[in-house]
Amino acid sequence: MPHENKPGQIVILNGNPRAGKTSIVHAIQNTFEEVWMNVGGSLFKKMTPERYQPGISLRPGGERPDLEPLIVTLYEAMYESIAAHSRLGLNVVADVWHHDSYSSPRGILPRCARILSGLPVLFVGVRCPIEVVMQRRIATWNAGYEEDGSVPKPVGLWQHAVHVPGIYDMEVDTSILSPEECARQIRQRLEEGPPFSAFHSHEDMM
Questions:
Q1: For the whole prediction, is pTM greater than 0.90?
Q2: What number of helices (H) and strands (E) belong to the chain?
Q3: CA 39, CA 188: separation in Å to the nearest integer?
Q4: Pair 89, 10: CB distance under 8 Å
């Protein structure tokens, strides 16, 4: 049950699409004993009107500058919600796609870090080799390689941009670990330390 006088733990899972973040979210919710609320990008994307899609998951490349001011606001709204849950004693796990490869730098990660200032945040980098990402894209969307056998440019951009600057408390590789194994490693990190501070190190990086 929530602790009335103690903020809930926050776990932020950052990685590119098809890296396996949502599966880890479900594993945490299903295996951790405490209440863990899913307040992440996948849900905020679903809440966004169709005419503003892809919303919070706008990919790198600066192709929709008209949407970028909204993207900033959506991220701020999501993190304000995360903060509110934590302050009420609820644990939160959130899947995100942080990058700053827009038509101009937006500094979204530092903005979000400041919103969570003073709250306990474990920042987890979710890695997955590009070959496995492509296998999952084919299996899920039947969207594969280009005709010349190359990786589609947007996929390559995601693979790099989402892990800049790449400062995390811990990282997991979903090509090696199952969602449940990732959740166990996250649980171990939460219980055994050392103290986590990576997310808050981004507060002044603008």
A1: yes
A2: 7, 5
A3: 22
A4: no
